[in-house]
Amino acid sequence: MERDAQFDVLLGLLQTFEREGVLQHLMLIGSWCLFFYRSASPKVGEFPAVRTLDADFLIPHQRGLARDVDVPSLLQELGFVPTFYRSSQWVVYDHPELRVEFLAPELGRGSSEAQTVPKLHIKAQRLRYLQLLADYPKRVTYQGVTLRIPEPSAFALHKLIVSGRRTGGAKRRKDLEAAIAVLDYVYAHPRELTMMRTILHRLPKGWLKTLDGLATTHYPVLTGDIRERLRR
């Protein structure tokens, strides 16, 4: 598996988070998941290579956070500098090779303010549709580090939904490319396809209707599974 300086920064971060007991409470989401899907796949080329500045960590919930860990201090020791967004009280952490962001599912009516996570001394930006990822974790191990990422089918469906919320440009194109690549993988593997159909069965109908419109344009084979669920 090809690596570079950027990935070495990410791996060092994951190792630090695991050593300090933080990693078990986080889920790595976003395009870096493609790297770990690739690393776990016996077939070369099943997933596209990843190049992204952002390492996004989802905090599914705060239950079980019994230990107090000063995550900002850990990040600064690794060379990350905090950037504060006054409007939302959100903080991101920048390194010459990587940006780290903490996210949380937006539930109910939502809020524009970041969610405080007192035990980790951080604030997480709340975004819609992240519960889709939080509900379907997959454990992977890479060079002795065990982390959680979303199931590939949850990742693909989320990327497809998010692409529809983009106004255009490179980010929308990358979201679509990632969604299509992982959907190709899902439809080629019966276990993954079963998981995707399970997820579709549990999604709210409003989300399914959103996915149906996007799938019709970008991945028509998916519409059959979506519409079967909508008919029930």
List keywords for this structure.
alpha+beta, 2 domains, two-stranded antiparallel sheet, 9 helices, 9 strands, globular
pLDDT averaged over residues: 90
* Beta-strand segment tally: 9
Largest sheet: 7 strands, mixed
Under CATH, the topology of the largest domain is which?
Beta Polymerase, domain 2
Separate helix tally: 9
> Structural class of the secondary structure composition?
alpha+beta
Strand residue content: 15-25%
Number of separate structural domains: 2
What is the CATH C-level name of the largest domain?
A: Alpha Beta
Helical content stands at 40-55%
The CATH architecture of the largest domain comes to 2-Layer Sandwich
> What is the first-to-last residue Cα distance?
43 Å
> Low-confidence parts lasting 5 or more residues at pLDDT below 50?
none
Gyration radius from CA atoms, angstroms: 18 Å
Q: Write the H/E string, N to C.
A: HEHEHEEEEEHEEHHHHH
Question: What do you see in this structure?
Answer:
It is a single chain. This protein has 232 residues and is α+β, with helices and mostly antiparallel strands. It has 2 domains: 1-150, Beta Polymerase, domain 2 (2-Layer Sandwich); 151-232. The protein has helices at residues 5-19, 33-40, 71-77, 131-134, 152-165, 170-187, 190-202, 205-218, 221-230; strands spanning 27-29, 54-58, 81-85, 90-94, 99-105, 115-117, 122-127, 137-142, 145-150. The strands form 2 sheets. Strands 1, 2, 3, 4, 5, 6 and 7 form a 7-stranded mixed sheet that branches. It has a two-stranded antiparallel ribbon with strand order 8-9. Strand 4 (90-94) and strand 5 form a beta hairpin. Helix 5 (152-165) crosses helix 8 (205-218). The longest helix is centred in the C-terminal third of the chain and has 18 residues, at 170-187. The mean pLDDT is 90.
